[in-house]
Amino acid sequence: MAALRATPEDLIEIREAYMGMESAVGDLPSSVESDLRFHMAVLEATHNAFMRPVGALIQTALRASFRLTSSNRTLYRKTLTLHRAVVDAIEAGEDDRAEATMLAVLAQTSRDIATQTKVAMGGKENVGSHKALRTGVNRMPEEKRTFRSAAWFGRDDKDGFIHRGWMRNQGLPSHVFDGRPVIGICNTWSELTPCNAHLRTLADQVKRGVWEAGGLPLEFPVMSTGETNLRPTAMLFRNLVSMDVEESIRGNPIDGVVLMCGCDKTTPSLVMGAASCDIPAIVVSGGPMLNGKFHGRDIGSGTDVWRFSEGVKAGTMTQIEFNEAESCMSRSAGHCMTMGTASTMASAATSPLTPPSPLFSK
């Protein structure tokens, strides 16, 4: 998008940010800030009303990831080459190439984070090895740490009795309160939010991953804002959901949180709420549904509804065809498959707040 919309001033800012990255080799604070400046400049060049505020929101997470990858000169020099390719594609106005090169940057960053995390945890991975992504880099550290949830479950007094005792009515054995991290599964599942109606099943898969990594997963609901049913508008309740998320995390024994979202406002509201709590958080998006199919052609979520409606008014489409198209548009679980708010927010959250994709490990 930046390749198509960047102004001459945007191109100058992107180029200067990249030059700052080049001159900052070996200077960790400067390299982190230069890398952040580069990505914010690209976001700004999209001139997209949704992307820019989300970029500002996730600056803390971006700084943390850049600090990890920029600390190794070999990795940093490798990523400079990829950033240069992004600059060249944007300056050439080649949108597809700019997208491909930026994805390559994100893929390399995911691999570098995995490698550096492995090293920080005492592993023996060599720089550039991808094995860390395949052999449990995301497992909890073996060393004993005192987590936030210990203030609830780690006590031997009356309060500890209450916190653990009532939790055990769910069949939890005593050994799960051994000081392991408690990972909240913040779920916007709701049958009134069709785009998120499959998140209950997806949350079960997330829980299995948390158990496997040595944590204690505890799922909790927050208000779900569905675009298609909620009146007068889902946007009215975005900040309310953010407050719901923040207070649910802050007030409970949660050490980290997985944000389950999909429909338009659910992603920014969950990210906003979690960002206010200063605990580790990742986003698991429900993903887009399959393309609709009607009379041998693709139809998109929402966009074709208006065309069909106007076609009925103009007499170019019958009411029977209109009713038939209704059952052809939404063919699977997931949010709107067009590049609207849901996919835009999911894309914006993908780099700093989601686990590395299996595609990136190849």
Q: Number of DSSP helices?
A: 16
Radius of gyration: 23 Å
**Strand order across the biggest sheet?**
2-1-3-4
Report the top-level CATH class of the largest domain. Mainly Alpha
Largest sheet: 4 strands, parallel
Count the domains.
3
Intertermini distance: 26 Å
How would you spell out the order of helices and strands?
HHHHHHHHHHEHEHEHEEEHHH
Q: Find the structural class using helix and strand composition.
A: alpha/beta
* Helix coverage percent: 40-55%
Which outline best applies?
flat
Q: What's the CATH architecture of the largest domain?
A: Up-down Bundle
State the CATH topology of the largest domain. Four Helix Bundle (Hemerythrin (Met), subunit A)
- Average pLDDT score: 84
Low-confidence stretches are 124-141, 356-362
Strand proportion: 5-15%
CATH homologous superfamily of the largest domain? GntR ligand-binding domain-like
